[in-house]
Amino acid sequence: MKREKHSAGKLLMGLALVFFYLPIVYMVVFSFNDGKSLTNFTGFSLRWYQHMMESHTMMESLYTTFSVALIATAVSTVVGTISAIGLSKSRKLVQSLMEQVNNLPMMNPEIVTAIGLMLLFITFRIEKGYVTMLLSHIAFCIPYVMLSVMPKIRSLDPNLADAAMDLGATPWMALRKVIVPQIMPGIISGGLIAFTMSIDDFIISYFVTGGGVKNLSITVYTMSKRVNPSINAISTVVVLIITAVLVLINVAPKLAAKRQEKVELSRKRRVLPLAVCGAAVLAVIVIAGLRQGGSQLPYAGQTLHVYNWGEYTGENILREFEEKTGAKVVMENFDSNEQMYIKVANGEAYDILVPSDYMIQRLIQEGYLQELDHSRLDCMDKLSSAVLGLPYDPDNTYSIPYFWGTVGIVYDTTKVDPGDLEREGFGIFLDTKYRGDIYLYDSERDSFMMALKSLGYSMNTESEEELQEAFEWLVQCVQTMDAEIVTDEIIDNMAQGRKALGLIYSGDASYVMSENEDMGYYLPESGTNIWSDAMVIPANAKNPELAHEFINHVCSYEGAYDNSSFVGYTSANEEVMEELYGPGGEYEGISAYMPRSGNPNDEVFNYNEATRKIVANLWSKVKIAASNAE
Length: 630
Known about the structure:
Number of strands: 10
Number of helices: 24
Strand content: 5-15%
CATH class of the largest domain: Mainly Alpha
Helix content: 55-70%
């Protein structure tokens, strides 16, 4: 019986190890994949490691991650240890009070700490960036150090320091040569925890940073819309660094013990922190070296601040622009037009924004954009006429197209009858045949577009009665169809064929169809949203001349091809669009890539603040109805 239990225990332990480590092995293997697929290994290549090394954003984030972690660990370990020692000599009431204060940050949800720190920096008008991230990491690491050191201090004889001073030691000598060596295991544990917490942190870092400063967790988050294989490469590098640290921690003391048996304890205490710090310092030095470079080019030493959607740039476009101009590109990412608008309205300075059509209209109306200097632009004749002169900016006075496309239905051809799509259009989302097998996109604008078009109305309607009908249509959908409301996870989920159909942007559908040949894309005859995202220069841009150069680079054949082929959205460059969709092109035969033209029911969104507020309120109620239906 005991043998059987022992065998079962070993089996469970083995399964647990497989569960934890198999995903890491999978990630490492696919970091060497030649293709972009995360499920199909097409051949060995160092392509994504090269891309990682050439990516200013990735290497900067790796440097920021380890430099912040090292400094925060060093400072928090010293401050936390001294605070714990000082607290041990305080009165019981003070000790009890301070311990509760120390525990509070650890017990608080991270989001509360993050918002508190953000408001603190805003209140004192401290510009958010590297320093605010570092200060925040130090602040949340100190309690963990104190928590590790306090038990060791309590275990000491309280008269130890007095005895040392009676024998002639000064207070400083008593602290350094008597107290600290006795509590060294607690200090080391606290330092390791602080280092781990800093490396791992996302939420606090996300709220307290600015100016394009990102650690690795923020960079990975902004790349998560469509998992970029470069994530596998940079994650593998981090795994290797951590593995090296663990090897040093475990092997170095044993080697030292064999050489010097008499000083085994002392050597272990020294090797451990040196191993951690040495490996991390080495990583920072290597990464810092990789960040160096550049030559005296036209814009050498200048910085271009770009605010763009996550995973919306090509594999090489930023690096090539930096090499051509000598400038540094700092790119920040937003999740929605509204998030971007808040930052711009609050006065944050960027040189390039990439908002959507209706948001550009709003920014123009409110005076947040400057007119483009067309004498500096050499790209206008390269762009498709179908995406120029759109209603939100009829003369392209303020904007130059970046990507464009449609919103339609992605569907599994093995599950969905094409006749149902042709007959019902967007109404298929109310067809009970597909109950529990559909995705709705968590976008008030596009969801109401779908409902309004299904009802035969304009998506730009200002009629409250028609909006109410659309609201009831959506409520019926979420209550009777068990619809799952998602955002960008629809991309990978549909690529894996997890649902029958869903509402999706055409560029994301292009990727899904390239990953899964069973997927199709349908645009109802009742019409859809012909959308476009475009590059604009804010009124408070600090480097508009360089911004014009960036626009030219993005619209050039090389830049546009890299952008569109990598991301999957339709290029505004007509030559690139036709080449990618034509024979031998990367998106040959993928209908989602080429936007539809000639359907009189297709529309471009207009901005209307009153309607926007009504729709936002109604969409909140739709989501409440969806949660109640569950």
